[in-house]
Amino acid sequence: MEKDLRKTFELSLKDLKDKMIEMFNRVEQVYKSMFIALEKMDVKLAQDLIDHDKEINEMEDSINETSFLVILKQCPVARDLRMILTAIKIANDLERMADYATNCAMYILKTNQVHKAYNDEILKYKEYLLDMLVTIKKAYDENDVSIAFDVCDKDDRVDSLYRKQLDDFVEVAKTMTDEKAEEASRALLVIKQLERAGDHMTNIAEHIIYLKGGKLVELN
Amino acid sequence: MMKEVFKIEGLSLFYKDLQAIKNIDLDIYKNQITALIGPSGCGKSTFIRCLNRMNDLIPEARMEGCIRFDGEECQVTGYDVIGLRKKVGMVFQKPNPFPMSIFDNVAYGPRQQGVRNKEVLKEIVEKALKQAALYEEVVDRLNDSALTLSGGQQQRLCIARALAMEPEVILMDEPTSALDPIATQKIETLLEELKKEYTIIIVTHSMQQAARISDYTAFFYMGELIEYDKTNVIFSVPKNKQTEDYVTGRFG
Fold first, then answer.
1. What pLDDT score was predicted for residue A1?
2. Within an 8 Å CB–CB cutoff, is residue B229 touching chain A?
3. Nearest-angstrom CA–CA distance, B234 and B219
4. pLDDT, tens digit, for every residue of A192-210?
């Protein structure tokens, strides 16, 4: 292989990958902050997350634009084309994940210090999701299919946690007062968002597997 | 199951001591467009010239292996070479109309074959020009010199000239590399149409062209056939790393 044969092209692909890693890092940071805000019921930090969400949307726009231009100018095929298509799709998953974190931040604003009975349940996702975020970024960065499969396994923990919590909520809800029920419903919406965040990381894992081998897979 | 027009086994070709083609096995399927890609000097053109025995004309060229055309070994002594070239037409990189009228260019082959009847010739010429999507543009000037046509028109004239012989296969050696994008587009559209009736083998240096128009793609490198598969596979998930490096523009 002659190293510099498609120098501009290689640089564009590197630029795209750098933008992807930057977005992974940013979303990871958002989840870390969101869980801290939840633990401390830190309204200021939650508001800060909401205010800065549009920057993540802009990151996705920038990835889409770079991808568009590389396709336009370089007519990529095979692994290059897969790299670009997966970048577009993964950026979309990451953007959705950031939206979920923003929704959780809104929950923090709406729930005052007195009504945080469910925070312990919500915080059970912290370890699982942060672990998955680190792992999925590593799988993407190193283009490693086996790590991508690990992420899918890790998502099983999130799914079973959610199912158990949902069953419990449904059971307890039968005997709840209206006020309690409202509080429980809000918390339920939040854990649903966090469960969805796990699903998006499974999607990303599928994209990484496709990127490597060109095969579309359906996990979980 | 698709029918093979050409069945090639263990094909090698030497120019004196230089081996230009190395032990190639390849089947060419009927009514499909097969693209041959690979860097210059990889043996693509030499390969298609084996198929209608054009290499016979090069004294120092020596061939080994077996080529079956419609089931019959076609490189053996005594095989009807003229008949083969009639059935396996060829279009070259640079349009090469004869310095004669548009009509006479297309009528040249049939006349050589002994067709004398003017009405029959007229029919053949008209049909071939229509098939080559050139008729409408030249219908009023059939007696003008072919050299007055544009490059793209000249190339379609050469395709018409090949079609007038009612071949089974058309070999094309970079037929659009000397043409502008519009003329190229016309030829590509034409090929899609022609493959309903003919089998087309095209050598091209344009990856995008191979990806756009062909059903099968063969990647040649240094005289070897590195990979041969459906075009969608070659341009999405090639099995061989050399193929992937070539189609993605990493070497060549």
1. 47
2. no
3. 9
4. 999 999 999 999 999 999 9
- Indicate the pLDDT class of residue A213, thresholds 50, 70 and 90: confident
Please tell me the distance from the alpha carbon of residue A63 to that of residue B11, in angstroms, as a whole number. Answer: 48
The separation between the first and the last C-alpha atoms of chain A, rounded to the nearest angstrom, is 39
Note the ipTM here: 0.73
pLDDT of residue B225: 98
Output the CA torsion B108→B110→B115→B120 (10° steps): -100
Is some CB atom of chain A closer than 8 A to the CB atom of B244? yes
Please indicate if any CB of chain B lies within 8 Å of the CB of A82.
yes
Q: Is A108:A123 a contact under the CB 8 Å cutoff?
A: no
Please report the domains of chain A, with CATH numbers, ordered by start residue. Answer: 2-213 (1.20.58.220)
**DSSP H helical ranges for chain A:** 7-40, 43-74, 78-110, 119-141, 145-173, 178-213
What structural domains does chain B harbor?
4-100+167-247 (3.40.50.300)
The secondary element (H helix, E strand) that includes residue B226 is strand B224-230
pLDDT per residue as tens digits for the range B95-124: 999 999 999 999 999 999 999 999 999 999
Q: Residue B192: in which H helix or E strand, if any? A: helix B181-194
A6 to B250: CB separation less than 8 angstroms, yes or no: yes
Q: What is the largest CA-CA distance in chain B?
A: 56
Q: pTM value? A: 0.83
Dig out the tokens for B112 from the structure: 């050589």
